[in-house]
Specification:
Blueprint: H1 2-27, E1 52-56, E2 69-77, E3 94-100, E4 106-109, E5 112-114, E6 119-125, E7 131-139, E8 155-163, E9 180-183, E10 186-193, E11 202-211, E12 214-215, E13 228-233, E14 239-243, E15 255-261, E16 266-276, E17 279-289
Antiparallel strand pairs: 1-2, 2-6, 3-4, 3-7, 5-6, 7-8, 9-10, 10-11, 11-12, 11-15, 13-14, 13-16, 16-17
């Protein structure tokens, strides 16, 4: 009887002790933002290397093409908090890029912001056709990580949604790598320096805009810049967002330059926007990028997405 009583006391001690140890492990779990496990982001890391994700209304809605829709989202940090403190970059705290995943459709829009809730809302988002889309949120946390120059780093995150009847969707192949086209009455010519574009090599993309045979030298600033360019890689939609190098509206030459370093080889679509005579002109070019000297077929995990 004493043996059974002793075994019971030992078992009770082990049970209580084990529960105490487990509770202590939970209570002493790391809470530092440097060591806290990051929330999932569909395997697409942000430029600043701090995890953020989109929490949106997309799961509760059905999107129909050519019909105004409401899209609401918040930015969540790696501890489940809603981000509410954003820096103004090029006149906006949030730039939203909407593309169909075959890169046949492109929009650059700016949502309304609720400072109390941290929610962004697009009340009149129109998808032009059926198919899968990716929505990019491009922003800069005011208190986020900073670069070598002391400025906060930009972040780009995204989510995928479906629009309309997927059975009617047929992905469109990218066009050929041509360097001149006419858009909205303007002739736009693209030149690359160096001429042979390679991955991991700094490239200058130069856009010359002419109207009625004359170079346009009086572009108007659009969102605080003489031009905005979004670059997306075919397939995985690797993202880059860059702005014109020459920002002085008073010393225009008729050519607008952008600095781009393509992270990997492949086919890219370059969407650029300029403003003239009060209208925003959107151009798109396909650029073929060859492998660089030190480029592998897979990019490092922390370079799969870049912003600004």
């Amino acid at each position: 009887m004493k043996q059974f009583l002793l075994i019971g006391i030992v078992a009770l001690i082990l049970f209580v002790g084990g529960g105490w140890v487990l509770t202590r492990q939970r209570a002493s779990a790391p809470t530092s933002t440097d060591t806290m496990p990051h929330m999932p982001m569909d395997a697409r890391p942000v430029q600043s290397h701090r995890s953020y994700e989109v929490l949106s209304s997309a799961g509760q809605q059905t999107y129909v093409p050519k019909t105004p829709s409401v899209y609401t989202f918040s930015v969540m940090d790696d501890q489940g908090n809603t981000l509410k403190d954003f820096a103004t970059v090029h006149e906006k705290i949030m730039h939203v890029i909407v593309v169909r995943t075959d890169l046949a459709e492109f929009q650059h829009v700016h949502p309304a912001f609720n400072e109390e809730t941290g929610a962004f809302t697009l009340t009149n988002l129109v998808f032009p056709s059926d198919g899968p889309y990716r929505i990019f949120a491009d922003f800069t946390p005011s208190q986020g990580q900073k670069g070598p120059d002391g400025m906060p780093l930009g972040v780009t995150i995204s989510e995928d949604i479906t629009v309309g009847d997927q059975s009617t969707y047929a992905p469109q192949p990218l066009a050929k790598d041509v360097r001149q086209k006419t858009v909205g009455g303007y002739t736009v010519q693209l030149a690359a320096t160096p001429a042979s574009v390679r991955a991991q090599v700094s490239t200058t993309l130069s856009f010359a805009l002419t109207r009625r045979g004359t170079l346009v030298k009086n572009l108007e600033p659009y969102l605080g810049a003489l031009g905005h360019t979004v670059v997306l890689r075919e397939g995985d939609l690797e993202f880059l967002h860059t702005h014109a190098l020459n920002e002085d509206a008073a010393t225009q030459t008729g050519t607008v330059d952008f600095a781009v370093t393509f992270p990997r080889d492949g086919m890219y679509k370059v969407f650029s926007q300029f403003q003239h005579a009060g209208k925003v002109l959107t151009t798109d070019f396909v650029v073929s990028v060859a492998r660089g000297a030190a480029t592998s077929t897979e990019a490092p995990a922390d370079h799969q997405m870049m912003g600004h």
